[in-house]
Amino acid sequence: MFTISKCLGYFSERKMDWLLSSLIALISWGLWGVFSKLASRHMDFYQIYVVSTIITLIAFPAVFLVVQPQIDFKSPGFSYSILAGLAATSAIIAFYSAMGTGKASIVVPLTALYPIVTIIISYLFLSEKISPVKGMGIILAIIAIALLSTD
């Protein structure tokens, strides 16, 4: 039975942190898609990339000063972080390029299927299992893109 106390218990401080962050990311990515399309009507993809990266560079010192991370340059995590940055940069540039010529209503959902790539690579190289439910999710996501891609 649903009760307020159960609901409040579920949204404990720790769980609320990831949920709130997830919702902020969801909304921000949604806005990112819209603003990227609007920008692509007036600028080339490389101009959009440069301008949006400037915003990231402005935010970097503030985050760095507040968090003050200790980075272990010898850690395997450092190398993976570099690869993650390269992959993200490639994705962002390709996304802006696609938005310049494609429809936002197709480009955004298509590029939002990136978890499928993560799931498959995790299965192949990290020994993670793909449950029947995840497999069905992948199939349904592919069907969804096919349906969204039709005019």
Q: Give the CA-based shape.
A: globular
- How many H/I helical runs? 7
**Average pLDDT metric:** 85
Gyration radius over CA: 19 Å
Q: Which characteristics define this entry?
A:
single chain; 151 residues; mainly alpha; 2 domains; 7 helices
Give the SSE map.
Elements: H1 4-10, H2 13-40, H3 45-67, H4 76-101, H5 104-111, H6 114-125, H7 132-148
Summarize the structure in short:
80% of the residues lie in helices and 0% in strands. The protein is mainly α.
Structure description:
This protein has 151 residues and is mainly α. The protein folds into two domains: 15-101, no CATH class; 113-151, no CATH class. It is 80% helix and 0% strand. It has helices at 4-10, 13-40, 45-67, 76-101, 104-111, 114-125, 132-148.
